[in-house]
Write a structure and sequence with these properties.
With 348 residues, the chain is mostly helical. It is built from 13 helices and 2 strands.
Length: 348
């Protein structure tokens, strides 16, 4: 009996990926001149926002004006809806939804690139945005201490990690990665416009709720866009990671097949050999004389191999048919035999 190796959940996922025999050719974005120009312009915008907030310029005064306007009190009717809408910028729920969609793409396209690109984008988002948040230490509107100040360098105070806006940056990266991984130029354009509108609306919702300054939203939008524009530089690393994972999967499956326990073969039963009883020469001579030449040749044939088990002689076996007459009993029929008497003849 042969036992199959036990497959883990990861092995079953890779087995699903192996269903399609030919891997489709995907359009991997490259770092073109146009993308480099956009990256440079966005980086300049990013540094300008940071400089304007650090120097307490007109942008900080505009932040205070928007906060003191209190939009959540001016338009209180949409407050309940925007409480749910802002969830589209939270990393947990959005990452689960997008990862599920990209996982299906991986299964259909026989590649791990969509999930690996998404993971690389989230890693860059955590490193870059997190470093700036804790490095600048800006407090949010609910934790502001002085009217007109930029609320910077409050590293050890509560709510001092809101610059840039994590909701806005996460919305740009999470929904923008779908446009980045689109398979056609038309789909890429539509998804880019949709992700831009979605990310800006999530950022403005945080301003409405009073959790972020307006400059936080602008810097978060630029931070997320920088990550999407820089992803082509990480494509060789993503391809290398994919090749390593597939190679590791292949070695694991090959090792599982080699180390799979094999059941011991069941030994076949050896048939019993019946050896004829040796007959003395003086006993065989009269029998050989009475037999024909063919019958005599049959008496010296090789031993017969029979199935194992006890065997009985023909004389000891139960007869096939019972003894006696096969005719059914009849009341007028007399039994036959030597002791039976002749039927009397009656005259008329």
């Amino acid at each position: 009996m042969r036992t199959e190796p036990t497959l883990t959940r990861l092995d079953r996922i890779f087995a699903r990926l192996d269903r399609e025999p030919v891997r489709p050719v995907l359009d991997v974005p490259r770092m073109t001149r146009h993308r480099v120009v956009l990256f440079g312009a966005t980086l300049t915008f990013y540094l300008t926002i940071v400089l304007a907030v650090v120097t307490t310029s007109w942008l900080v005064r505009f932040d205070w004006q928007a906060m003191l306007f209190r939009p959540y009190q001016q338009w209180s009717g949409i407050h309940a809806f925007l409480d749910y809408w802002v969830v589209l910028g939270q990393r947990g729920p959005t990452a689960v939804m997008v990862a599920a969609w990209l996982g299906w793409r991986c299964w259909r396209q026989h590649t791990l690139r969509p999930l690996l690109a998404f993971g690389a984008a989230l890693l860059l988002l955590n490193v870059t945005v997190g470093a700036v948040k804790y490095g600048l230490g800006r407090s949010g509107p609910h934790y502001a201490t002085e009217v007109g100040s930029n609320e910077m360098w409050h590293w050890f105070q509560a709510g001092s990690d809101i610059f840039p806006s994590g909701h806005t940056a996460n919305a740009v990266v999470t929904w923008g990665i779908l446009a980045y991984l689109a398979t056609s130029p038309r789909a890429r354009r539509w998804l880019s416009a949709l992700s831009a509108v979605l990310s800006l609306s999530v950022g403005l919702t945080t301003v409405y709720l009073g959790t972020h300054w307006l400059s936080d939203v602008l810097l978060g939008w630029a931070a997320g866009l920088l990550i999407l524009l820089a992803l082509p530089w990480f494509e060789p690393l993503i391809a290398h990671a994919e090749a390593r994972l597939l190679d590791l999967r292949g070695r694991r499956l090959a090792g599982a097949r080699r180390t799979a326990p094999q059941a011991a073969p069941v030994p076949a039963e050896v048939p019993a050999v019946l050896t004829p009883r040796p007959v003395a020469e003086e006993e065989a001579a009269p029998v050989r004389e009475t037999l024909s030449p063919s019958a005599a040749a049959r008496t010296t044939r090789a031993p017969v191999y029979l199935a194992p088990g006890p065997h009985s002689t023909r004389a000891e076996r139960t007869p096939v048919t019972p003894a006696g007459s096969r005719r059914p009993p009849h009341p007028d029929r007399l039994p036959r035999g030597p002791a039976s008497t002749a039927r009397p003849v009656t005259g008329g």
